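Entry 14. Ran structure prediction on the chain below.
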Amino acid sequence: MNATHKQESFQEIRSDIELSFQHKAGDLMNAAQIVLIEDNSADALLVEMALKENGISYEMTRFKNGQEALASLCAPERTATNAFHPDAILLDLNTPKSDGFEVLRVLRQTPHLADVPIAIITSSQARSDKHRTSLMGGVRYIEKPSQLEEFLTTVGQAIKSMLH
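Output, structure tokens:
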């Protein structure tokens, strides 16, 4: 590849990035603020794909474990006036360092997050998990489908209905 072709390719990529950034910056004014607590990077990517496939404009904050999420979302310096108040929280039950049940319990006891809808996105099909999270304040229990198209549709539509 010669220097002229490299320069043209670079400028095309830069132009695409700038257009993408401008589009995203405009969307952020109306973007849903979503917190994802998920340790599996592939599942996190699938959740983002589901949001995009379902036309959901979003800005996502991801935590890879429950302890990290609680430290940030429930920090003592957060008060009603300076608290981060997401539109939805998506929580995997099997997170390291603090499992999803503990995270859900603490989030529901945190005043500035008590009214934020929390969806459980999990591979667990146990009825007891579904029942327990419902009693603890989870508004949705989404079993992760194993097929890609079903995952994108099921997860995306569930999140979309939470946001409206």
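The chain has a mean pLDDT of 85. Will compare against last week's run tomorrow.
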